[in-house]
Amino acid sequence: MGPHEALRRSAVERLEHAEVSDEALVARVVAGEHWVYEILIRRNCRRLFRLAWAVVGDYRQAEDVVACTFVNAFGLLSRLEPGARFATWVARLAIHQALQMPASGGASGGGSSNQLETAIRELPQPLRLAFVLRELERLSTADTAEALGITPTNAKVRLHRARTLLGRELSALAAASRADIAPPVGDHRERAATASLDRLRARSRRRAPDLTG
Fold first, then answer.
1. What whole-number distance in Å separates Cα of residue 179 and Cα of residue 53?
2. For residue 55, which of 46, 65, 40 has the smallest C-alpha distance?
3. DSSP 134-201
4. pLDDT tens-place string over residues 92-131
């Protein structure tokens, strides 16, 4: 790793956890600091992976959905309306992207990891999406509704129905870390983030911008 790359990685790691809003980072990307986009990818990758999984039901397909979403979102950043939240905007893009893919009958790479994951995957898709956003990713009711394109009242109804259907499996949610369940994100998050960056860099070699800094 050269000194330029080391400095870039250090800056990415520092900003990823800094108290800087996604929207402030978007403004920097739009202004020409394209390397900052990696921070937006890493901050939002877990949520998008879970959303994609909630639609397609397959780990590898979900990774592909995330990569496609971040590539498409990069070219649309200038269209993000003032006052809009990047997290909910990119979540809508991910849901739209996932809906273009055929749903899979099960999770690739070893199948379901726990009963809660199985139970969530068996929920009707509208309820599954609401549950993932509100309960696993802890979005507010308003942000959940915005991401799904429904009213806050409808978001509450879907969440209530999801919780009712899940029943006793919810005890696993109370006892476990949301970072490690339904589905376990770890390696999938990193692969999806890497695939997103690789595709963007491949595109930047054919045309501006350059994401390396």
1. 15
2. 65
3. IIIS---HHHHHHHHTS-HHHHHHHHHHHHHHHGGGHHHHHHS-GGGSSS--HHHHHHHHHHHHHHHH
4. 999 999 999 875 655 444 444 567 778 888 899 999 999 9
**Domains defined along the chain, listed by start:** 9-103+185-213 (no CATH), 114-182 (1.10.10.10)
**Cα–Cα distance, 145 to 126 (Å, whole number):** 11
Is 59's pLDDT higher than 70? yes
Q: Which of 60, 56, 57 is nearest to 98 (CA)?
A: 56
Alpha carbon separation from 12 to 73, 93, 119 (Å, rounded): 19, 24, 36
- The whole-number pLDDT of residue 112 equals 47
> Global pTM?
0.79
The DSSP 8-state label assigned to residue 110 in this structure reads T
∠ CA 150-81-201, nearest 5°, is: 105
Check whether 180 has a pLDDT greater than 80: no
